[in-house]
Amino acid sequence: MHSYLPFEKPVIELKEKITELKSFTEEKDIDLSTEITKLEERLEQLENDIYGNLQPWQRVQIARHSERPTTLDYIGELFTDFLEMHGDRLYGDDEAVVGGIARYKGIPVTVIGHQRGKDTKENLRRNFGMPHPEGYRKALRLMKQAEKFSRPVVTFIDTKGAFPGKAAEERGQSEAIARNLAEMAGLKVPVICLVIGEGGSGGALGLGVGNYIHMLENSTYSVISPEGASSILWKDGSFAQQASETMRITAPDLKELGVIDEMVPEVRGGAHKDLKQQAAYMDDVLERSLHTLRNQTAEQLVQQRWEKYKQIGQTTGESAVSSGD
C-alpha cells in the first residue's frame, strides 16, 4: 500500500471498505456482490471527482511525494545499456545529479537528471536532490561529450533548487548554472527536457534549456517554492497554499502560457502509483519528440531553441503595452 496524501483519505477509506467486504465474502461464503459493485461504482466517481479536479496545492503535494519515481527509476524503464559517469573533472562527483550514456530504442543518447532519495539515508547521500556546482559541471561535461559524438541529450528535472550553502557559493554555484544555460542554448544536438517532480528555480533551469520541455501532469516548475513566495508576499510561510494558486506553477498553467511544450498525463493519483504505466506515457512523448528533432540539422536545432525561448513571456493584442504609452 502506497502512503497517501491528506486529500486522498476518502478514496483510501473506501478502498479499504471494499477490500474488507471481499475478504468477508470469501471467509463467510456470503454473497455481497451487489454491495461491492455499488461501492466500486462510488469509488470510481470519487476518484474522478478528486483526481480529475486537483487544485495547485494538491499537485504540489503529489510532486513532492516521497515515493514519486526518480530519474534513475525512469532510466531503468525507458533506456537500455545505461552506463553512469561520474565527476566534473574539476572538483569531484555530485550525487544529486546522475548522468551517463544509454540507448533509447537502439539510439545512443546521453541521459542526465537530478536525483533525490526516497529515504533519509539516500536523501543525505543525494543532498536531497539539490546539486552543488560540480553537479552542473558534470552535466555540462556530459552534454559537450554528447555534442562531440552527435548523441541526443535527455534531461530529467526534479529538484527543489540548487544547494544554497556556503561551500556551493564558494565553488561558483551561480557561474556553473549560468554557464549551463549559455552552453545548452547552443548545443548542436537535440535536447529534450522532462520535468518529473519539482522544478525549482535556477537549480532546475541548469538542466532545463532544450528544444522541447515536457512536464508530467502533477509536476511543478517555478522560480521559487510556494513557501518562499508566501514568505515574501505575506511575510509568513504558512500561506503556501494561497501562493501556489496564484503563481501558475502547474503543468496545465504552464502549457497554457507556452512555457512547456507538452503535458504528459499521469497515472490516476500520481506517477508513484504505477511506474511502468507512467513510463509508457513518457515513452510516447519522448519517441515523438526525438523523431522530430533527429530530422533537423544542427543549425535548425539551435535556431528552433532560440525561437522557442524568445517567444516565452511575449504578450499580444490589448494586453501588450505599446512603446508610445
UniProtKB/TrEMBL annotation:
<dbReference type="GO" id="GO:0005524">
    <property type="term" value="F:ATP binding"/>
</dbReference>
<dbReference type="GO" id="GO:0016743">
    <property type="term" value="F:carboxyl- or carbamoyltransferase activity"/>
</dbReference>
<dbReference type="Pfam" id="PF03255">
    <property type="entry name" value="ACCA"/>
</dbReference>
<feature type="domain" description="CoA carboxyltransferase C-terminal">
    <location>
        <begin position="38"/>
        <end position="292"/>
    </location>
</feature>
<comment type="function">
    <text>Component of the acetyl coenzyme A carboxylase (ACC) complex. First, biotin carboxylase catalyzes the carboxylation of biotin on its carrier protein (BCCP) and then the CO(2) group is transferred by the carboxyltransferase to acetyl-CoA to form malonyl-CoA.</text>
</comment>
<keyword id="KW-0276">Fatty acid metabolism</keyword>
<keyword id="KW-0444">Lipid biosynthesis</keyword>
<dbReference type="GO" id="GO:0009317">
    <property type="term" value="C:acetyl-CoA carboxylase complex"/>
</dbReference>
<dbReference type="GO" id="GO:2001295">
    <property type="term" value="P:malonyl-CoA biosynthetic process"/>
</dbReference>
<dbReference type="InterPro" id="IPR029045">
    <property type="entry name" value="ClpP/crotonase-like_dom_sf"/>
</dbReference>
<dbReference type="InterPro" id="IPR011763">
    <property type="entry name" value="COA_CT_C"/>
</dbReference>
<keyword id="KW-0275">Fatty acid biosynthesis</keyword>
<keyword id="KW-0443">Lipid metabolism</keyword>
<dbReference type="InterPro" id="IPR001095">
    <property type="entry name" value="Acetyl_CoA_COase_a_su"/>
</dbReference>
<keyword id="KW-0067">ATP-binding</keyword>
<keyword id="KW-0963">Cytoplasm</keyword>
<keyword id="KW-0808">Transferase</keyword>
<comment type="subunit">
    <text>Acetyl-CoA carboxylase is a heterohexamer composed of biotin carboxyl carrier protein (AccB), biotin carboxylase (AccC) and two subunits each of ACCase subunit alpha (AccA) and ACCase subunit beta (AccD).</text>
</comment>
<comment type="similarity">
    <text>Belongs to the AccA family.</text>
</comment>
<dbReference type="GO" id="GO:0006633">
    <property type="term" value="P:fatty acid biosynthetic process"/>
</dbReference>
<keyword id="KW-0547">Nucleotide-binding</keyword>
<dbReference type="GO" id="GO:0003989">
    <property type="term" value="F:acetyl-CoA carboxylase activity"/>
</dbReference>
<protein>
    <recommendedName>
        <fullName>Acetyl-coenzyme A carboxylase carboxyl transferase subunit alpha</fullName>
        <ecNumber>2.1.3.15</ecNumber>
    </recommendedName>
</protein>
<comment type="pathway">
    <text>Lipid metabolism; malonyl-CoA biosynthesis; malonyl-CoA from acetyl-CoA: step 1/1.</text>
</comment>
